[in-house]
Predict the structure.
Amino acid sequence: MIPLELSLVEPLGRLRSRPWADAVTGVKIDSRRIDEGDLFVAIGAGADFAAHALARGAAAVLVPDDAHRALGELGGAVRARSSARVVAITGATGKTTTRDILAALCSPHLRTVASEANYNNELGVPLTLCRIEPDTELCIVEMGMRGLGQIAWLASFARPDVGVITNVGPVHLELVGTVDEVARAKAELIEALPAGGVAVVPDEPLLEPYLARAGVEVRRFAASVPFETSFTAAHQLENARAAVAVCEVLGVPLPERLEVAFTPLREEELELPNGVLVLNDCYNANPLSMRAALAHLAERAGGRRRVAVLGEMAELGPGAPGFHREVGALAAELGVEVIAVGPLARDYGGRWVATAEDAAAALRGMLRPGDVVLVKGSRSVGLEAVAAKLRG
């Protein structure tokens, strides 16, 4: 990390530092990840681990007055001292895999920092910015949202040069109400771009009212993906089209073939000894991603039997039953046998069970050699247990 003086940290809360320390060279909120010279920011019960952080070599411990504000200030300070270009990615679906694809394209050519795992919120975005080194040329940050104003706040200290919106769809409707408001929330990223910034967007009518910002260039997704890929799902190729457009903005040359290791629990394929193929995409789900995953299941299965363990989709508000019925109808149309998990999932149809553990047991009882199985649902359902039990 670009070093930060302790005099900058001190106003953010209660600071305990080593006598020899006048600056910090990293920021962590998990004492187990501390490296020598880091600042340990004690979030919540993290104050109990201050001694552990110091024992591991932390230069200082901060117990912040306001954790989110403190991390935002720290991330923003590192960002302000860097000449790296920042690309921010948001959208209803595909944020993480678009980030993975873009990082794979850019890393061979630019010294790149990219968000880890699901680091896309008030904690994750500043922690990503705090990994920027003096020689970093590109920082790719993923930005999630649960309501209006959140992306605007994240962008206020990330200060992106390029903003990518992967798509707009029915997500977090319990909090924002309508898909129009989802578009408005995502478009906060466009509003945050500086003069000369670039917005990379799909052909989405709901975004059009936000694209007339003076001084901001609008780029559409690339017309095609001009290289071979290690993935074939149509929705991932759409994400690749977004990444290609960003590469054109950055002047990054494209490869003849791209290999991408996606973040765990997204697009994982597990081959079982009896010829069963498991498509483990269980990190999260909403109506857009469910439809895409079912289409991919049908494509990968071909003439093989199709089975899907589908967890309920959370945060859809009053329209949740209708969204679940639509997904269930698509599964039936594609010839998919469904195990539905969780209270809202009853509307999928198929066989219903209450928990992920029940789903794993039901699946074991119905599997036949050669089946292709999709596992997908909202994070709260915990469907990673299904793939874990199948591996076992």
In short: Residues 13 and 320 are 42 Å apart (CA to CA). Residues 234-250 form the longest helix (17 residues).
